[in-house]
Design goal:
heterodimer, A: alpha+beta, Beta-Lactamase, five-stranded antiparallel β-sheet, two-stranded antiparallel sheet, elongated, B: 2 strands, AP-4 complex subunit epsilon-1 (chain B), ARM-type_fold (chain B), membrane (chain B), transport (chain B), Adaptor_Complx_Large_Subunit (chain B)
């Protein structure tokens, strides 16, 4: 039932973020990334956001120049997965303030942290936007404090 | 360390960095370092990596997150009690993660976690929604194999769903006006698993309530609507059968389908068609099925979007009845041949990849083929129709049709088809007759199929046709006189004659072995009567040809040649038996 992977791919086909919730060898992973990226980039705008890849479903959505892609099992609910993607983007957007591809390139570890708050082991764990942002901001505050202490020493 | 993660993201193998990640997680001086360390640990340490053993016990103390994602089955026994203790931790994010970790344990080693189900169940009543949601996640997995033992979950599920639908959760869980759609969907999924028998009726009201709320929403609400439909359809059939008759839109979820199926938004259209796929075939009724819907389905079939088209084909397969079978199967056959063109059309790269990767799961094409055969067997209108379909598939079907496919068809002919349109005693005999006609049409040469269509089948003709043709002749060749109009044309000696000619014309050892086994079977059936000398001579000749001419180079075909000789020898023995 959980999501198998989340990929962020630019329109040029560059991977911007890849998170796997299943155990696969690097070779299998790169094959999936390559195939799925190809499939998704070939879709036209007037088509629906779902497609089949082997025996899994791929759900994608384009935001500006980035494609957000999630792979799920055949029995999963596509529509709700699409909304998970959307919620992730909302959280990113709120955090960075109008998120852009560059934000993600330079702060990709933060994008991972946020995904971790949202999804654990591939399942939606915290659907509340407020709760996610609060957790992230708490982390950041502690980090800042420590950085300041370091400076003062 | 972050650079390392970046490397992993780009698809490099950076296992060498795992140990450093671990060190950083343990000894990080600042939170920033620790965070980076944990992130790297999680990304790098996958199940099976032996480093997990060292790392695990730190994680229980410091962070359960990582535990959720990686564990060796061997270490679970020592972990379970620690994690269970974490269930009563004061901080909700610890409880939440403990539940996810337990779920992970459960999938790895069910028996270890199973005794503690009652304790985990308490988490369903946790005041924190996210913990409750995590508990639902656990049961969504656990309920799969143990639906029977988990019936007592139902009251709790009903309560949770009721609460969520009534908007009792904190505001933060609203998603675009929809109350906690993820929790709703999880509840519905578990209910679907539990609702096979008498429990359905108790759950239906709250499911309908969720439906009514969701039908006013957007975005995530669509996902909930789909789940509601799926859940209702997996309940006891009487539930959906009753609901589908209702004219009241609030009581009949099927009435929302047209709104989606006819939508111009491709996502909603996809949703509508997928919804139709979920509907129990018995629940199709005029109460909700409209002309518009039919139009929408036809439109989806013609859609340029492959995803929608596939869904629509699946739907067609589900809609099968005796009346529409012919049209639908025609459509499926069309899609079948379409599918092949796609593969060939995509050119060099695609086909190369396909050859490299022998797929373990059925391809789209194989799936359609299975659907066609199944549909034809269950709903076909007549024997003639069935056989012409089979011959068409065998001859033009390409490499997807294997000898196994043929064997499946044979067993249908042998054991009888389920469709009421077939006369099962007539089917095999007719099959043999068609096989004779086919041979005559092809001038007895089965290799010639490739001459006729050099473009479509550049490879060798599929041996599947030959296998089928000679099998039917061997099994039923002697019975054809029972129904043939021109009796003399199809009596046993005529069949033997034809088979002998096939043996002469086709030099391919595989085909010859098919012919020979048919010959042997028939001559046993003919036993009191002698086998015409002309035929035995042909076989003897062929057999000698094989021994004198140099055997083909390939070792594999050498085996088939030996097989041919063996079969020929057996036939001759039978023939001798008849003479003596």
């Amino acid at each position: 039932m959980p999501i198998n992977y989340v990929l962020l791919v630019s329109r040029q086909g560059k991977t911007r973020l890849a998170k796997w919730f299943t155990t696969l060898s690097p070779k299998e992973k790169s094959k999936i990334v390559k195939d799925v990226t190809q499939l998704v980039l070939a879709r036209r705008t007037k088509m629906c956001n779902f497609l089949e890849y082997k025996d899994t479903k791929v759900i994608y959505r384009r935001y500006a120049s980035l494609y957000f892609i999630a792979g799920v099992g055949p029995q999963d609910n596509e529509l709700i997965t699409l909304e998970i993607i959307h919620r992730y983007v909302e959280v990113l957007d709120r955090y960075f303030g109008n998120v852009s591809e560059l934000d993600l390139i330079f702060n990709f570890e933060r994008a991972y942290y946020m995904l971790d708050e949202l999804l654990i082991a591939g399942e939606m764990q915290e659907s509340s936007k407020i709760a996610v942002l609060k957790a992230i901001n708490d982390h950041d505050a502690v980090e800042m404090e420590e950085a300041n202490e370091e400076k003062n020493k | 360390m972050l650079r390392l993660i970046y490397g992993e993201m780009m698809g490099q193998d950076v296992q060498f960095g795992a140990i450093y990640a671990l060190k950083l997680a343990q000894s990080g001086q600042t939170v920033a370092e620790k965070r980076a360390g944990y992130l790297a640990c999680y990304l790098l340490l996958q199940e099976g990596n032996e480093l997990n053993i060292i790392s695990n016990y730190h994680h229980v103390v410091v962070a359960l997150v990582t535990l959720c994602n990686m564990t060796l089955p061997d270490v679970i026994p020592s972990m379970v009690s620690h994690v269970l203790a974490a269930l009563s931790h004061t901080h909700e994010s610890v409880r939440k993660r403990a539940l996810v970790a337990l779920k992970n344990f459960y999938t790895l080693d069910t028996d270890l976690v199973f005794p503690y189900l009652d304790r985990i169940k308490d988490s369903l009543y946790d005041p924190e929604p996210s913990v409750m949601s995590a508990a639902l996640g656990f049961f969504a997995i656990a309920v799969k194999d143990h639906a029977g033992e988990m019936k007592e979950l139902v009251p709790a599920l009903i309560r949770i769903l009721q609460q969520v639908v009534d908007g009792k959760l904190p505001k933060g869980y609203l998603y675009h006006g929809m109350a906690a759609p993820w929790i709703q969907i999880r509840c519905l999924m578990i209910m679907a698993q539990l609702g096979h028998d008498d429990l359905s009726a108790a759950m239906t009201p709250v499911v309908l309530r969720a439906f009514q709320k969701a039908s006013q929403g957007v975005d995530a609400a669509f996902g909930v609507l789909f789940e509601v439909l799926r859940t209702l359809n997996s309940f006891h059939p009487s539930i959906i059968l009753e609901l589908c008759q209702s004219k009241d839109a609030a009581r009949n979820p099927l009435l929302t389908i047209p709104r989606f199926a006819t939508s111009t938004n491709p996502n909603l259209k996809y949703l509508g068609i997928s919804m139709l796929c979920q509907v129990n075939p018995d629940a199709w009724s005029d109460a909700w099925w409209t002309e518009d819907l039919l139009k929408a389905v036809v439109e989806a079939l013609e859609s340029r979007d492959a995803a929608i088209q596939k869904r629509a084909l699946d739907l067609l397969y589900r809609m099968l009845t005796m009346e529409n079978a012919q049209n639908i199967i025609e459509r499926l056959v069309f899609a079948y041949f379409q599918e092949q063109d796609d593969v060939q059309g995509s050119g060099g790269v695609g086909s190369q990849q396909q050859q490299q990767m022998p797929s373990s799961f059925p391809s789209r094409k194989e799936k359609i083929l299975g659907q066609i055969l199944d549909a034809a067997e269950r709903f076909g209108p007549s024997e003639e129709w069935y056989l012409s379909l089979i011959f068409d598939l065998l001859v033009r079907g390409g490499s997807t049709i294997t000898l196994q496919t043929t064997e499946k068809i044979m067993s249908v002919i042998e054991q009888g088809a389920r469709s009421l349109g077939y006369d099962n005693s007539r089917l095999p005999i007719l099959a043999a007759q068609q096989s004779m006609k086919f041979l005559v049409q092809q001038d007895f040469s089965l290799s010639s199929t490739s001459h006729n269509h050099p473009m479509t089948s550049p490879r060798q003709p599929a041996p599947a046709v030959a296998y089928f043709v000679f099998w039917t002749l061997g099994e039923y060749g002697d019975k054809m006189t029972a129904i043939a109009e021109e009796n003399d044309e199809y009596d046993l000696s005529a069949v033997l004659e034809v088979l002998a000619r096939c043996l002469l014309v086709n030099q391919d050892p595989l085909i010859q072995s098919f012919v020979l086994s048919a010959l042997t079977k028939l001559s046993i059936k003919a036993l009191p009567n002698p086998i015409p000398v002309s035929i035995t001579t042909v076989v003897r000749q062929q057999c000698q040809n094989r021994t004198t001419t140099a055997p083909p180079a390939a070792a594999a075909s050498l085996l088939t040649v030996i097989d041919v000789q063996q079969r020929a020898a057996e036939f001759l023995m039978v023939a001798d038996l008849a003479i003596s």
